[in-house]
Amino acid sequence: MARDFTNRKRTILGGVVCLVVADLALAAYSYELTSQPLTSGPAFVRQEDYLKKLKASVSRAEQIRADMPNTQRDCEKFEHMLLPASAGYSSILSELHEIAKKSGVKPPDINFKPTPVPARGLIEVAMESTVEGDYKNIILFLNGLQRSANIYEVESLVLAPQKDNKGPANVIKVGLHLKTYFRAGA
Questions:
Q1: C-beta of residue 174 within 8 angstroms of C-beta of residue 128
Q2: What is the DSSP letter of 28?
C-alpha cells in the first residue's frame, strides 16, 4: 500500500507541475497580448482620422438642423419676392424692353411658356427671344438682366443666323433662352 501511495503522490505531483507549467505559459501569452497595442500605428491614425471625419459630419448635420428655420424663412422671403402670375407677364415684358432700350439693343419679341410647379406654388416661365445689337450692347443687355430686381436664369445663348446680309456688319443676333418664376394663385 505504501507503494501505491508513492505512485499516487508522484502522479499528483506530476499533474500539479504540468498545470503550473501550463499556467506560466498562458500567463506569458496573456502578458504579450496586453503589452501590444490593439492596432498598429498607421491603422490607429487612420481610425482617428475616420473618427474626426465622422464627428465633423455629425457636427455639420447638427448645424444644418439648427439653421433649418432660418433657411425656411429665407426661402419663404424669396418666394414672396417673386412677382404674382397675374401681373408678372406684363412686368417682365416692360422690364425687358426697358433693359433693351438702356443697353441699345432692338427690343426683343418674347415667347412665354409657363409650367406650373405645384409642389412649391410657383409657375416656371420659359422665355424665348432674340436680341440684335453689337457685341457691347448685347453684353450690356445681359448685364442688365443680371442686375435686375427680378430673377432671370439665362439657360442658353445661341448666335442666331442673319436672315439677310443687309445692315451694319457689326450687328449680331443672339437667341436667348431664359427662365423666371411667378407666384401661382396671387
A1: no
A2: H
Give the CA dihedral 32, 34, 38, 41, nearest 10 degrees: -70
Same domain, 53 and 93: no
DSSP 117-165: ETTTTEEEEEEEEEEEE-HHHHHHHHHHHHH-SS--EEEEEEEEPPSSS
If you ran DSSP here, which 8-state letter would residue 3 be given?
H
How many percent of the chain have pLDDT more than 90? 33
Q: Residues 17, 105: one domain?
A: no
Considering the domain architecture, whether residues 93 and 56 belong to the same structural domain is answered as no
77, 101, 119: which is the final residue of a domain? 77
Structural domain harbouring 17: 2-77
**Average pLDDT of every residue of the chain:** 86
pTM of the model: 0.60
